[in-house]
Amino acid sequence: MAYIVNKNDRLTVYVEDLTHDGSGVAKVDGYPLFIPNALPGEEVEVQVTKPMKKYGLAKLIAVKKASPDRVEPPCHVFWDCGGCQLQHLSYEAQLVQKRKTVRDVMDRIGKLPHVPVHPVKGMENPWRYRNKSQIPFSEKNGETIAGFYKTRTHDIVDTDVCIIQSEEADELMSTLKHKLHELGIRAYDEINHRGMLRHLVIRKARATGELMVVLVTRTKKFPQKEAVIDVIKSVVPEVTSIMQNVNTQKTNVIFGEETILLHGKPFIVDTIGDIQFEISARSFYQINPEQTEVLYGQALEYAQLTGNETVIDAYCGIGTISLFLAKQAKEVYGVEIVPQAIEDAKRNAELNAIDNAYFEAGPAEVVIPKWYEEGKRFDVLMVDPPRKGCDEKLLETILEYKPRRIVYVSCNPATLARDLRILEEGGYRTQEVQPVEMFAQSSHVECVAWLEI
Ligand code: SAH
């Protein structure tokens, strides 16, 4: 079938825009071409790789006129690795771009052109910010490799350094990779479902410096376990926790069901504001600790608590937002689908002597209607759903009972805009949207929206 462009065509095009996942967009007689690594404002030579009905993909051959915002990516594997998408764009321009992404979906999907979208609250130093690394291990030509996946593939881009993760993670990743071979421990072979070490997961608590290392293995039997523990201790003598997680399945889900303590404690302690949290191997915890305080601070500001409010924290994880809000509210009710996270939340409430936070495990769309049916009433609803946004049934419940204020924390502006539109149809008015940087160098952006009825 013929399109405006054909496979392998070479064209010179002007890049108008950037997609939410960091590809440049050029139009050929109105037909969009998506070009990874090209930036808005650039004139580029491209080669068409995949023409399709409504749009095509092309690869960048040469930049003829570069954007003034183009910079040399500091990471040596940036062009291959799928971890970051925007290292070739100056950090200031990344923030401008992310605000524009949010503005666009608010206009197009939310139909909210009048709602202010503030400049992104960015980072002072947008490097080495991640407190968690999940590093796949494998083998290639008889060598152990470890790093991150190429975009949309399961090909590991082998590296010893990742400049958005901690230095400890770099050292553990490279030392273990080089030592495994010596110890005769095979890394996992995804295709044949053989080998031992699948993933190395490292978590560091920024406030306390506590460090957890999790070795995800294919079998429970772990030959040379002591030697591996010694290697880890030689790299990070202060390590707080070493865990083994067993994942026997042929799957790309990282963790399996069983987690075994190998050394130290089964959790690390971190603080956000003045609240302490115990974090275990599998709990959800925001990955950018410096910006988590900014994010939660914004959520707290929009909640405008005086001490008399009863608040819901829906999708509460281990209760981080709930406990952060509890001191300023009368009561907080947290709900979360993972029972283990709710156990963590309850323990964290105790740890901080907070006695006005209640937690229940279950789907938010089931538990919240139940609370209302039991006669409970809420002033402020905080929601922080996963990327797919709020469940339809939860939105229906909100519109039925109409808590007067909603604070919506979102890691996906498109589903946020969709849900805001539904809430607007039901009578809510979106007051403001504040984007917050949580994922510097990547194309992701977090937002907090404030609604009133
Ligand atoms: N507010 C927390 C966690 C946000 S991540 C924090 O800032 O740390 C989103 C959470 O929603 C995850 O913990 C996930 O397990 C949970 N979740 C996903 N679907 C859910 C549902 N239908 N009901 C309740 N929680 C859900």
UniProtKB/TrEMBL annotation:
Keywords attached to this entry: 4Fe-4S, Iron, Iron-sulfur, Metal-binding, Methyltransferase, S-adenosyl-L-methionine, Transferase
Keyword Iron-sulfur: yes
A matching Pfam family: TRAM
Coiled-coil residues: none
Gene Ontology MF annotations: 4 iron, 4 sulfur cluster binding; rRNA (uridine-C5-)-methyltransferase activity
EC number: 2.1.1.189
GO BP terms, alphabetized: rRNA base methylation
Residues at the active site: C411 (nucleophile), C411
Domain TRAM, first and last residues per copy: 2-62
Presence of the UniProt keyword 4Fe-4S in the record: yes
Binding site for S-adenosyl-L-methionine: Q286, Y315, E336, D384
Family under the similarity heading: Belongs to the class I-like SAM-binding methyltransferase superfamily. RNA M5U methyltransferase family.
Descriptive protein name: 23S rRNA (Uracil-C(5))-methyltransferase RlmCD
Organism: Sporosarcina pasteurii
Gene: rlmCD_2
